[in-house]
Design brief:
Layout: H1 2-5, H2 9-30, H3 36-47, H4 52-57, H5 62-70, H6 73-94, H7 97-103, H8 106-125, H9 132-161, H10 167-188, H11 200-205, H12 209-217, H13 225-231, H14 235-246, H15 252-267, H16 273-278, H17 283-297, H18 301-314, H19 320-345, H20 347-371, H21 378-395, H22 400-408, H23 414-443, H24 447-465, H25 474-484, H26 486-489, H27 492-503
Helix pairs in contact: 2-9, 2-10, 2-12, 3-5, 3-6, 6-9, 6-23, 7-8, 7-9, 7-23, 8-9, 8-12, 9-10, 9-22, 9-23, 10-19, 10-22, 13-14, 13-15, 17-22, 17-23, 17-24, 18-19, 18-21, 19-20, 19-21, 20-21, 20-24, 22-23
Subcellular location: Membrane
GO molecular function, one term: D-glucose transmembrane transporter activity
Main location: membrane
């Protein structure tokens, strides 16, 4: 069995290839921010509210003129839509993750949806050929739809092919690829690289590039053995896939574990979204999964990204964009720390440390913001709190919710659970994005107190309700939740519900 623990070259290629979808997700998240002023100017030109003549006429006041372009109501509307439509696309498509994943398999599913990413990249890259605002919004909508699918398919595939000993570390690579994508978009979005008037369509269009590379590599990746055995019943194909992923070894023990899981899955057949929501059988797992995704988005991390430039400006940094890139670097470094620690320290421990640390940082940040007008050094307290806040986020609450959902559920309800968790994540992301500026205007520097209270609640919930899944088989994890409902297991209500799940035609 020792050889089964080794990381083979094929497994490395398969995980890298899948993570390219996550890289694309991260790039698409971050790419829209850096060139905002340039894109607004192009929107205004296309809409007829700004011309080159007016720019020449007010040549000496260009700095004042550009923000006015961005404040034009029509430009604001189209710009806001360009940003928000991405999340709306993600919310809609997250429901389809299970369907796409089971339609042709995890690998072919990822291959199919790459058509969307390439189409989105072309729409944005060629936006000057027609009306830029319409082309960019259309491209962002299609890209959001793609990212909603890939943010479910990637953790599902990696979770199913990863050896038990490395499941946490490999699962964390989804989040690592996201933050690397964000960092790449921040760096090449600088005005002297691609974030300028000539190159910005290429900057947006490049968001489809990873899909091209992924499409070339995916045919060389083995299909998920769990999908082959448990969903399709192809034991020999699953054995071949296991040997490709782990090297030549005796796959009997792994196949036996899948056989037991298949027997359980046959007793509890494929569960639809509606069945999963109504079911009391999976309620505890679903509650934990959704709360972990809510803790990720309602932690205030996106608020930090929105607010960081303003804080860095107040601290007297002449180029706050570089400080924001610094936040991206911290993001990446501490996600790597999480990759190294997650299979040693455990999921629950890292999530508790992360949420608790973020709660303390939110309080320190509030104090720094409240007193920075009285004490010059308080701005640096706020800055330090921002960097630490991001570091704590990436240690646990950032990467872990993405892959722990695949660990909490057996094969039957797993696709539906991942779809629901993804929808919850995208919806809460959209809510924070839309409401943060209003909450900030209302509470001012005390805005992060709201997040500190939420983080305290999430920390307590994690301590009381989230089990440790490190080193456990999917069977053992399911057993943890079954213990809590042992008495109910033989009740007529429960048996009747299991019969309903079996006969559900919408699965």
């Amino acid at each position: 069995m020792e050889s089964a623990k080794q990381l083979s070259g094929t497994l490395a290629v398969a995980v890298f290839t899948a993570a390219l979808g996550s890289l694309q997700y991260g790039y698409s998240l971050g790419v829209i921010n850096a060139p905002q002023k340039v894109i607004e100017k192009n929107y205004a030109r296309s809409l007829g509210v700004w011309t080159e003549e007016s720019a020449v006429f007010s040549q000496n006041s260009t700095e004042e003129e550009l923000p006015e372009v961005g404040q034009h109501p029509t430009v604001v509307m189209y710009w806001s839509l360009s940003v928000a439509i991405f999340s709306i696309g993600g919310v809609l498509s997250s429901f389809l993750v299970g369907f796409v994943g089971d339609l042709k398999g995890r690998v072919k599913g990822m291959l199919m949806v790459n058509v969307l990413a390439v189409a989105a990249g072309l729409l944005m890259g060629l936006c000057r050929m027609w009306k830029p605002h319409i082309m960019v919004i259309s491209g962002r909508a299609v890209m959001g739809f793609y990212c909603g699918l890939t943010s479910g398919l990637v953790p599902m595939y990696i979770g199913e092919i990863a050896p038990k000993a490395y499941r946490g570390a490999l699962g964390t690579l989804h989040q690592l690829a996201i933050v690397v994508g964000i960092l790449i978009s921040q760096v090449i979005g600088l005005d002297f690289v691609l974030g300028n008037d000539d190159m910005w369509p290429l900057l947006l269009g490049l968001s489809g590039a990873p899909a091209v590379l992924q499409s070339i590599l995916l045919p060389f990746c083995p299909e998920s053995p769990r999908y082959l055995f448990i969903i399709l019943g192809e034991e020999e194909e699953a054995r071949i896939s296991l040997c490709r992923l782990k090297g030549q070894y005796d796959a009997t023990a792994d196949l036996e574990e899948m056989r037991r899981e298949k027997e359980e899955a046959d007793k509890e057949p494929r569960v639809s979204l509606l069945s999963l929501i109504r079911s009391t059988v999976y309620r505890q797992q679903l509650f934990v999964a959704l709360m972990m995704h809510l803790s990720q988005q309602f932690s205030g991390i996106n608020g930090i990204f929105y607010f960081s430039t303003a804080i860095f400006t107040q601290a007297g940094i002449s180029q706050p964009v570089y400080a924001t890139i610094g936040v991206g670097v911290i993001n990446t470094i501490f996600t790597m720390v999480s990759v190294a620690l997650v299979d040693k320290a455990g999921r629950r421990s890292l999530t508790l440390v992360g949420l608790g640390g973020m709660c303390c940082c939110a309080i320190i940040m509030t104090v720094g913001l409240a007193f920075q007008s009285q004490f010059w050094w308080m701005s640096y307290v706020s800055m330090s709190a921002i960097f630490l806040f991001v570091a704590f986020f990436e240690i646990g609450p950032g990467p872990i919710p993405w892959f722990i959902v695949a660990e909490l559920f057996s094969q039957g309800p797993r696709p539906a659970a991942i779809a629901l968790a993804g929808c919850c994540n995208w919806t809460s992301n959209f809510i924070v994005g839309m409401t943060f500026s209003y909450i900030q205007a209302w509470l001012g520097c005390y805005v992060f107190i709201v997040f500190a209270v939420l983080l305290l609640g999430f920390t307590v919930f994690t301590y009381l309700r989230v089990p440790e899944t490190k080193g456990k088989t999917f069977e053992e994890i399911a057993a943890i939740f079954q213990k809590g409902r042992k008495e109910l297991a033989a009740s007529p209500k429960d048996i009747s519900e299991m019969q309903q799940l079996k006969t559900a035609t919408d699965a």
